[in-house]
Amino acid sequence: MMLEDDTSLVSYQIGGVFIGHSQEETQEMLETAKEALEQEVKSVEERVSEIQQVLGDLKVQLYAKFGDNINLEADES
What we know:
Elements: E1 9-14, E2 17-22, H1 23-66
Antiparallel strand pairs: 1-2
């Protein structure tokens, strides 16, 4: 966004196509895309947290039932 001329078109890729927009329009589109991605990341992180909680609860139940006869820890190899 360091163009000297405000009337120049900036190429913005949407899918497989580049579209020319003004610097201001491109900046707005980038901010909108950034906000959408941040929201998606937040949603995925919340889902991961929920799944990890369920996994922890299941491990507690299984270890309570089977004791040390099972290994539920992931291999680090």
